[in-house]
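Progress against Task 2.4 (sequence-to-structure conversion) is shown through the following example record, which the project officer requested during the mid-term review.
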Amino acid sequence: MYMRPQIVTIATLVLFLANSTLMLGQSKGKDAGPPEPALRTPGELPIDSGFYILLIAGIIYGAYVLLQKRKAKNILD
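Structure tokens generated for the chain above:
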């Protein structure tokens, strides 16, 4: 019965000591910290060349849908 609180106390102390040891073991020299970010050139999207094709395809599809709706409306009237 009395063993459980003792195990919890011991486990808490062990985890605390292990965590603090890892934190204090980090380097504080000139090389400490994350590395410098690499210089990147702005990327180009692959949609640049096909944008106009997609635009024309969208216009054609929109006109097709509008024509189909007009035909369906004319048949009902």
